[in-house]
Amino acid sequence: MSLEALREQLPDYAKDIKLNLGNLASEDILDEQKRWGTFLSCAITGRSPDVIKAIAAEAESRLSPEAVRAAKAAAGIMAMNNVFYRFGHEAGNEVYKTMPAKLRMTIIGNPGVDKVDFELWSLAVSSINGCFMCVDSHEAIVRKAGVTSEQIQAAVRIAAVVQAASTIIEGEKALAG
């Protein structure tokens, strides 16, 4: 399935999402690797098989195998980290913030692509997962590396629209089934 086929699969009430997907796919605020790595990591995070397949088909034609692997890794490592760090932030007991994580996360230090791109993908995924501690951390890293506010917002807009598409596609399947 292609991104265009995915857009056509969206129902009429989701016209805004359909248009936003097309606009974001061609927007040049992010370079191709940042843009398609964000799309792919966010599609995986959204867990809709149709959305993952459509976006992966597009992303794999635009990204190196290393970037595809790193985008997948960003979705995976943030699935773990967002739960862990969100708990530490939300728990009323401050002791959890001082305890070592004791979780392996070496992919963050050596993702196989430009670290800034990986951090941007991690920021977008963390936005979907609602881990504001991780959002703050990754946002500070990419800002320090020179990523602009407009670029950060573009990545989060991709996250928002891909998540909406995943919600709509899976919701329609559930209602039909």
TrEMBL record:
UniProt family annotation: Belongs to the AhpD family.
Function per UniProt: Antioxidant protein with alkyl hydroperoxidase activity. Required for the reduction of the AhpC active site cysteine residues and for the regeneration of the AhpC enzyme activity.
Catalytic activity line of the entry: N(6)-[(R)-dihydrolipoyl]-L-lysyl-[lipoyl-carrier protein] + a hydroperoxide = N(6)-[(R)-lipoyl]-L-lysyl-[lipoyl-carrier protein] + an alcohol + H2O
EC number assigned by the record: 1.11.1.28
Record protein name field: Alkyl hydroperoxide reductase AhpD
EC category name: oxidoreductase
Disulphide bridges: 131-134
NCBIfam families: ahpD, ahpD_dom
UniProt domain Carboxymuconolactone decarboxylase-like: residue ranges: 99-165
Keywords: Antioxidant, Disulfide bond, Oxidoreductase, Peroxidase, Redox-active center
InterPro entries assigned to the protein according to its UniProt record, in alphabetical order: AhpD (IPR004674), AhpD-like (IPR029032), AhpD_core (IPR004675), CMD-like (IPR003779)
Residue numbers annotated as active site: 131 (proton donor), 134 (cysteine sulfenic acid (-soh) intermediate)
Key word Oxidoreductase present: yes
Keyword Oxidoreductase among record annotations: yes
Native organism taxonomy: Bacteria, Pseudomonadati, Pseudomonadota, Alphaproteobacteria, Parvularculales
